[in-house]
Amino acid sequence: MSKPAKAQDATWIWYPGDFEVRLHEKASTWRRARGVAYPAYWRLDRHYSNVKFRYVYDLPQEETIRIAAEGRFSLYLDGRDNSRTDRSEITLPAGRHEIAVSVFNDTEIPALYVSGDRIRSGPSWEATSYQNEWVAAGAWTFDAPEAGPSTFRLSVAPQDPVASEIRGGHALLDFGRETFGYLRFHDLSGDGEARIYYGESLSEALSPEACVTVDRFDAGAAATRSVEGLYTVEEGKAFRYVWIHADPGVRWEKVSMLYEFVPVTYRSAFECDDAKLTEIYEMSLYTLHLNTREFFLDGIKRDRWVWCGDAYQAFLMNYYSFFDLDVTRRTLVALRGKDPLTTHINTILDYSMYWFVSLYDYYLYTGDFAFIRQCYGRAVSLMAFCLKQLNAEGLIEGRPQDWVFVDWADLDNTGAVSTEQILLARSLEAMAKFAALMGEDDDAAAYAAQAEEIKAATLRLFWDETQGGLLHHRVAGETKPLMTKHAGMFAMTYDYLTPAQRESVIRNVLLNPDVPDIRTPYMRFHELATLCESGEHDYVRREMLSYWGGMIALGATTFWEEYDPKLADDAHYGMYGMPFGKSLCHAWGAGPIYLIGKYFIGVKPLTPGYGTFAVEPHLGGLTWFKGTVPIAGGEAEVDMNKARIRVRATRGGGLLRYREGGADKEIPIPDDGRWTEVEWHERA
Question: What pTM does this model have?
Answer without folding.
Answer: 0.96
